[in-house]
Amino acid sequence: MKAGYRALAHALWGMILSLCAAWPVQAAEPIRLGLVEGLSGPLGNGGEAVFRNLVWASERVNARGGVKLPGGARPLEVVRFDSKGSVEESLSMLRAATDQGVKVVLQGNSSAVASALISALDKHNERDPQHRALLLNYAAVDPVLTEQQCSFWHFRFDAHTDMRLAALVEVIAQDRQLKKLYLIGQDYSFGQHLREKARAMLAQRRPDLQIVGDELHPLGRVKDFMPYATKIRASGAQAVLTGNWGNDLTLLIKSARDLGLNTRFYTFYGNALGVPGVLGEAGVDRVLAVAEWHPNVGDAASERFYAAFRQRFPKPEHDYLHARMQLMVEMLVAAMEKAGSDEPRAVALALEGLKLDGRPLGVAHQGFMRPADHQLQQPLYVSIMRRAGEAGVPHDNEGSGYGFRTLRYLDAAQAEQPTSCHMRRPAS
Predict the structure, then answer these.
(1) Residue 245: which of 91, 139, 138 has the closest Cα?
(2) What pLDDT, in 10s, does the model give residues 290-309?
(3) In a designed cystine with 287, which of 95, 117, 385, 400 is the match (CB 3.0 to 4.6 A)?
């Protein structure tokens, strides 16, 4: 009889253990990264491309166990807040993110938006220190954001306008055949600063160069750039310098192609978001871009990095990979693990002075977060559009048959620009 009870008890205990094993274990609470970006509207394609980059970066962190903190490892989760490209809507989305307890906000596609978010976040963090948040910036490049407006709560992971522009001017300065240049840009803080700084740098490096046009146009609202292309042709310009991005760049260069302009375009963003496919053969040896990385850098780490992204996003139209966005997430994770916390002030202090080589983590990029102004110091490449398959161009862009080859490489020390930031740091 006792043996029967023991057998029954053993069976019941086995059932209980089986049920416990099958019962879902509560997952660790994710660390949410709030993407406040234009995910719809005329510039929504850029926002969606950013989202893919950040999702992939988070997936790679989660695949190796997540963010390792004293209380246990936690995964990353990217949460979307569609700002529709508007400053007002961006501020509304920032409030929504902080109300939901998001401690890390990500934004980049507009310096005007970034400026408004920095001001709002400074006030929020001072008013409500128990619910602080950080702003990580991957693309808003107006220098004022880390100069006059520099904030302890803001970190920029893209090279700012002056860093990128200086790299392009280095190449322009070597082209002694170039005599006439046209400036065109978007009419907001970034475009306005670029115009003024370009004039100053060119006057110093190429005082003989004639600027035959200088124009700003509304951001994201121009549907037909043919009138602008016509002005460029009438000016006799041999080259155009522009900071345009998104559809504003694609449509501008498309109009130049349709008009048959035989001009070079010195751009910040000419190697992504549809431009090579739109230009085709007309862009070969004419479109230049500056970036922290491009797929044809050529080293083994870069090849592995690009191959992994193409495996995750095999569609040609999803070919928009930025190493700085991957490095941004990796540096955030490293700072959290160094601080042993996701508390914003502790993470910010850990980010200051952080140096990270992303190559062992599968990111073909490296950087140093300068404590004085929270501006990432990183290498830059100036590249030129060529036919895929030619020497130095094993990879094309977006299945277009055209890619970019390095013309000039600047290491982090060469790309660095001075800062005048006087940052106020919170005591606690």
Answers:
(1) 139
(2) 999 999 999 999 999 999 99
(3) 385
